[in-house]
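Subject: Interface between my chains keeps coming out wrong

I've been trying for a while to get a sensible model of this assembly. When I model each chain on its own everything looks fine, but I need the whole thing in one frame so I can look at the contacts. Pasting all components below, labels as-is. Any help appreciated, I'm running out of ideas.
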Amino acid sequence: MTVLRGRARLVGDDVNTDSIISSTRKRESLDPAVLRQFLFEHVDPAFAASVQPGDILVAGKNFGCGSAMEVAVTTVLGAGIPAVMARSFSRTYYRNAINNGLLPLVCDTGAIREGDILSSDSTGAIRNERSGETLSPEPLPPIMLAILRAGGLVPYMRQNGDFKL
Amino acid sequence: MAGRTISEKILARKSGQDARAGDLVVCEVDCALGTDGSVPMALDYFRAMGGENVRDAARLVFALDHYVPPTSPQTIELHRVMRDFAERFGVTLHEAGEGIGHQLIVETGRALPGGLVVGADSHAVTYGALNCFATGIGSSDLAAIMLCGRIWLRVPDSIRVVLTGQLPRGVYAKDIALALAGVLGADGAAYQALEFAGPGVTTLTLEDRLVLSNLAVEMGAKTGIFPADVETVAYLQGRAGQAFEPVAADPDARYSRTVEIALDTLTPQIALPHLVDQVVALEDAAGTPVQMVYLGTCTGGRLRDFHQALAVLEAGGGVAPGVQLVVTPASREVRDAMTADGTLEALVGFGATVVEPGCGSCCGTCGVIPGDGVAVISTANRNFKGRMGNAKASIYLASPAACAAAATRGVVTDPRKVSR
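Reply #2:
Try treating it as a single job with all components included. I did that and got this:
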């Protein structure tokens, strides 16, 4: 897995996929390069413009609840965000994240503050450079790791043509 | 070793492995639904995966339901792309106006007891009412199923929801589901299955069970599954295209938790804006003004829902001034039945705006959008801010009868207290 280093961008509990990207937007385009300018538009209209590549989303519980729409993952990736940390995810968001190569990290995010610099090491542990605290996200089962390592389900299926446990 | 839950048994059957909660298995999919909200992206993934041929077109169903009618060149193009693909590979496609994909999967007997049915839409959980393992997936998962016919799944823990007694007059399946959401919370069943059980199950019609399974995902559940009984078999009579083998839980199956709901103690419930687990007794919200009433969706858009709503509208003397009543049948079959028995004419007589069968206003992609500051009471399953296409509106969720009661008075009203 690639080693991460980025700013924490805090969003709260129960952030639904329509908050991430409004489903009315995907009527016009499915292109992440277009949709990224509307990321979290109803939550914080300034958010999209403030994203820097490498930023890490840090959420509370139940991130990505609601619709299973995959643009809620591809738009996040399109903004240059490689990982989402949350106390828990909705299962469709979690699947979609793995299938698109967005790293979903389940851990206790309660002590992370907006703007903290978070960095991962090769073991997958996440260090908060401000507080010195280290978090160890739940390990991923082999098939999910294999899909993530391939770069998502598209390259995985190109390589394997089927699922291999 | 402990016995198995319904989910463990179905996923064992479909994977050919000893599937126990927590295991990861690769399963054969009996049927996969995609909609105009998810298929266009799935086709991009399918091509990027190198897909040239669909593995088994007979197991795929496309439904044009999210953009009905299409109102822009972009959405018309999405429909065209889906039609072309479906025609080329022989995939069944339900045209715009035929109805909500989930309702069509159920009506056409594609969700069968003991089966594994997935849909690229979160409310695919609805078919769990028919004793199949039914869950929502994304567009990329759908593309992989097109390619290889299979999916990986983590076998979920199950929460046993024991229903006892019988619903009192004026209390409905939606009230059970909202009460359960209030108990479990919006993520209380995350990654888990809800398995309904107990003597109360036999008192629920299949339409009731569809409501409960549909709302399972609002508690984070992977599926909301019922046992099969005479009601299940009776519904599938003349619909099921093939033989099926129901699955029952073992008496010693292991559950992560048991929740008991005594149906006879329930009262009308309401979910307040903007989360489905913000549930209170409806009487505690009585008097809250509403300007729009929405009857429809894959939760509350079936024939009996409209019958229940109409009865309250008639008892209450019609729609109050200043209230907009919007009606969207879940499918053409539902609308035809409403036409045949006079329900539709009566609703139009009360001033209802009737929208083409489909997802309508529920997800904000088409249909009637609420104005700024408008309070909507709806038979739908979600009340997130922005859900119906306007983040400045507020959405309340309640039973069809409670929605109709609000329509008669212009304020949240207990349906048991409505009379002329």
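Reply #3:
Confirming on my end. Chain B touches chain A through 50 residues (CB under 8 Å).
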